[in-house]
Design goal:
Helix content: 25-40%
Distance between the termini: 59 Å
Bound molecules: nickel (II) ion
Structural class: alpha/beta
Largest sheet: 6 strands, mixed
Number of helices: 17
């Protein structure tokens, strides 16, 4: 153990004495009736009794003080109980007025560094996403500090062209591993997070617009427990209800979500449901090991091992849709879902702002999201600074909606040159052109689009379409049905190409050293809208 937990106070009336659990539970029922008016039942259930199990014998003798927190909120730890706790102010060099603070605990450098990095990235993403960004303020509290676990909740208010918005995040720090985990790590896996999403949809009810709710990390990034052990999920303003509406949150009974929790989630529950008398991290963490929990639930990869496109027996095709999302995109997503097909969406900034729920859905359903700029300019004609700004905006918009950092982009009109290559290389983005142009924007003829796509659907093809045209949405039904019945795998661009090099351009997934990429890029640029 690298920390001390000392219970100075003894409050026999507030927690059951372990050898007398039966009597204590009976007492709890009585006390529960008395407390019913102010607190939900369950305050003194077996859960609270269990939470003393891991303490050493002498510690069990003494009862813990009750956890505290407001109604419908996470537990709030008294900062005075945490030895050496200090507050740091984020120094941010940018045009946005920032007033951001975060906690600094002795022997918790990885937490401090993480918070500094994460909060800077949040402010930077706000600045990139909103050119009217004005100010960003954030404050913190600890929501757990016990048994090697620290919960940090950040409440931020950003003020920009959309007015004021509140955002919440809760991070979980393991003091021995020196690892910081996002809130979705409180859940066992993607399936458990999906079950939580279903419960949360029911719970937020009529006040919310649940059409934007998906089991992704960007939505479930502030989860903790209240003093009574109930799970509290907080949503950012505008995520599941109009931004002007009050803080949206869901409170779920612990018994409902208990089977879904990871070990970390169980520890967080135990830590948040008792008060803290004294907490100290006695030693710096041993950070030699890798992150033992791996990918967080709610982080959806555009790549997985369900399809192996390098297998010569397998025919892989990447369907790509540009310039959206549009009003017809949900119908397209239905079609793809029906036929077990994945696609890549090269999104532009304004449609993302108009249809954030569709973007989240596409991401949640395993499709790849890629950058197609904010304003759809010809990147070869606007200079490196403007090109960077244009791409950064969409990068930030998608990050804020999904938590996903895109690593592919498509230059509008397929127009690229050395300057664009440098910009995209610096941003970590590979350039994806195409090998089949359906010219769907020109023809607006579903049959013609379907014929062109199906004619060109050879192994390794990247097929260009636009999901902002209803004729393309209609054509996709035939394309996907036909390809499925002929055994073609419809994959994301990343599944098709494997790993890609930032700045490089790719037009298909066919290895062919004789066919230079640049030549193909020019061909694409002349031929299409992109
Ligand atoms: Ni385009």
């Amino acid at each position: 153990m690298e920390f001390f937990l000392v219970n100075k106070r003894s409050l026999p009336n507030m927690a059951p004495d372990r050898p007398l659990i039966t009597a204590a539970l009976a007492f709890a029922v009585l006390l529960g009736l008395l407390l019913m008016a102010t607190r939900p039942p369950g305050l003194l259930t077996a859960d609270s009794a269990q939470s003393t199990d891991e303490l050493s014998g002498s510690e069990q003798e003494e009862a813990l003080p009750p956890a505290e927190g407001g109604p419908g909120g996470q537990t709030v730890v008294d900062p005075g109980a945490v030895a050496g706790l200090q507050e740091e102010k984020l120094s941010y060099d940018g045009p946005v007025d920032t007033s951001v603070t975060y906690p600094v605990l002795p022997n918790a450098d990885p937490l401090t560094e993480y918070l500094e990095r994460e909060l800077s990235a949040e402010v930077a993403a706000f600045e990139d996403a909103d050119h009217g960004a004005d100010s960003y303020e954030a404050d913190w509290n600890l929501t757990a500090a016990r048994q090697g676990l620290v919960g940090v909740r950040i409440a931020a208010t950003e003020s920009g062209s959309g007015g004021e918005r509140e955002r919440f995040s809760t991070y979980w720090y393991d003091t021995e591993q020196g690892q910081v985990y996002g809130s979705t790590h409180l859940f066992d896996d993607q399936e458990a997070l999906t079950a939580l999403d279903t419960l949360a949809r029911e719970e937020v009810g009529e006040d919310a617009d649940t059409s934007g709710m998906y089991p992704i990390s960007a939505l479930y990034d502030s989860i903790g427990f209240g003093p009574d052990g109930d799970l509290v999920v907080e949503f950012d303003a505008g995520q599941v209800a109009p931004a002007a509406q009050d803080r949206m949150h869901a409170v779920l009974d612990h018994s409902e979500i208990e089977p879904l929790l990871s070990d970390l989630g169980t520890r967080a529950h135990e830590a948040a449901t008792v008060g803290v008398d004294t907490f100290e991290i006695a030693e710096a963490p041993d950070t030699a090991g890798d992150d033992p929990l791996g990918t967080a639930p709610g982080t959806i990869s555009p790549d997985d091992d369900s399809v192996d496109c390098t297998d010569t027996e397998t025919t892989c095709v990447a369907l790509t849709f540009d310039d959206g999302p549009g009003g017809g995109t949900p119908q397209l997503l239905d079609t793809l879902d029906e036929h077990d097909a994945r696609a890549t969406f090269f999104v532009t900034g304004h449609p993302v702002q108009e249809h954030p729920e569709t973007l989240r859905r596409a991401y949640a359903e395993g499709h790849e999201i890629a950058n197609h700029t904010l304003n759809h300019p010809d990147l070869t004609s606007i200079g490196a600074g403007d090109a960077t700004m244009d791409l950064s905006s969409t990068q930030a918009l998608v990050l804020r909606e999904t938590g996903y950092e895109m690593d592919l982009m498509r230059p509008p009109y397929g127009a690229t040159d050395g300057g664009v290559a440098t910009v995209t290389q610096d941003m970590g983005l590979a350039q994806i052109l195409w090998s089949v142009d359906t010219n769907d924007w020109r023809h607006r003829d579903a049959d013609k689009v379907a014929d062109t796509a199906l004619d060109g659907a050879d192994d390794g093809a990247i097929i260009l379409m636009h999901d902002i045209h209803s004729t393309t949405i209609t054509a996709a039904e035939e394309i996907v049905r036909e390809l499925e019945s002929s055994g073609v795998e419809m994959v994301t661009v990343t599944q098709l190409l494997g790993s890609t090099e930032p700045g490089e351009s790719y037009m298909d997934g066919v290895p062919d050293p004789e066919e230079g990429d640049e030549e193909n890029a020019d061909e694409g640029a002349d031929a299409s809208d992109g």
